[in-house]
Amino acid sequence: MTDATLDARIAFLNEACRLKSVTRTTTLCDGSRYENSAEHSWHLALYAMVLEDHAPEGTDISRVIRMLLLHDIVEIDAGDTPIYGTTGHDDQAEREAEAARRLFGLLPPGQGDSFRALWEEFEAAVTPDARFAKALDRFQPPNQNLASDGIGWRENGATWDKFEARIAPSLRDTVPAFWDYIAPKVKAWFSRNG
Fold this sequence. Notes:
The structure is a single chain. With 194 residues, the chain is mainly alpha-helical. It has one domain (3-193): Hypothetical protein af1432 (Orthogonal Bundle), CATH 1.10.3210.10. Helices cover 66% and strands 4% of the residues. The protein contains ten helices and two strands; from the N terminus they run H-E-E-H-H-H-H-H-H-H-H-H. Helix 5 (92-104) runs antiparallel to helix 6, helix 7 (128-147) packs antiparallel against helix 9 and helix 7 (128-147) packs parallel to helix 10 (176-193). The radius of gyration is 17 Å and the shape is globular. GO terms for molecular function: 5'-deoxynucleotidase activity; metal ion binding. Residues 18-179 form the HD domain. One of its GO terms (cellular component) is cytoplasm. Pfam families: HD_3 (PF13023).
């Protein structure tokens, strides 16, 4: 490995550190503060490891973990677009694609292309690996919102209808057990607090 290759990799890793500064609208389970996108990515990787027996047949859990570690890196440039928010959705794909070009472009070409392809696969959510990764990305925040008594939901105007429209398709189609587990809990929370 040349010094230039190592320099490029370190530059990418240093830039990736900025993901720790991107604040999300979901709090930690204890409600003490908002999580950042780096914490979210790590937590999702742990979700994949713990819940891998729910993955659809043919899923490669190591690829899922890699996807989850990379899936929100574009938020360094594009910012986090809250799923229940009312702004930022129209140009989100364009902002994130531009961020992916820049960030993965910091790496040596073969590695950068490989990482970007993995990120694009996650975004497309067509392969079993990407569908499971996307389902986990939809499953983790409601669990944290339930644990924190809905701080993120309250502050972002979430409703049961919005939740069902934005979360159900990914969970019902990929891991119905996740939907069957979370839906009654969330519906009951919104019934009490809506």
